[in-house]
Design goal:
The chain contains eight helices and no strands. The chain is an all-alpha fold and 159 residues long. The protein has one domain (4-62, 70-155). It holds the Pfam family DUF494. This is Protein Smg homolog.
Length: 159
């Protein structure tokens, strides 16, 4: 469960920053101290910051995905970690226009970067929300994304 606590750190950061409208790009040392004071271990905090760096580092990603009628084939590891039901949920978010191809791939990448052997739907939703929040940080309102992602009546997520 130690790796799951990286997601706990990320969810804490997201909650705190959305309440205070503080940017996650704030002073990392100050945020690290705040997280440790909140009870998170230093190594968990460092892994969470590394995860966030991967979220914003676009240098290793294609600049633009062309719309395509092709079907995405998932790697065995992706199927094992995320599971077909949760991958279906990600594809559903793409189908209804919340995610585009690029954001879908980023959500999958960030889920895999958590290093968790098996993930549940609440984790998928949180990662999707963090990806969307980062993607639309230029003042675009993500509240309706948040409402839609976190309050699916079939899978109510409590945070």
């Amino acid at each position: 469960m130690i790796k799951e606590s990286v997601l706990d750190v990320l969810m804490y950061l997201f909650d705190q920053n959305s309440e205070t409208e503080q940017s996650l790009s704030s002073d990392q040392a100050a945020l690290s101290a705040e997280l440790e004071k909140a009870g998170f271990a230093k190594d968990e905090v460092e892994r969470a910051f590394h995860w966030l760096e991967g979220l914003v580092d676009t240098s290793q990603r294609p600049k633009h995905f062309e719309p395509s009628m092709t079907t995405r084939a998932f790697a065995a590891k992706e199927l094992s970690v995320i599971g077909s039901e949760h991958l279906s949920y990600i594809l559903y978010l793409e189908h209804i226009g919340i995610l585009n191809v690029e954001l879908r791939e980023l959500v999958i990448d960030r889920i895999m970067a958590l290093g968790i052997d098996e993930i549940d739907l609440s984790h998928v939703k949180w990662v999707a929300l963090m990806v969307l929040n980062n993607h639309y940080e230029d003042g675009f309102e993500t509240e309706w994304f948040e409402e839609m992602i976190l309050t699916d009546p079939k899978t109510e997520v409590q945070h």
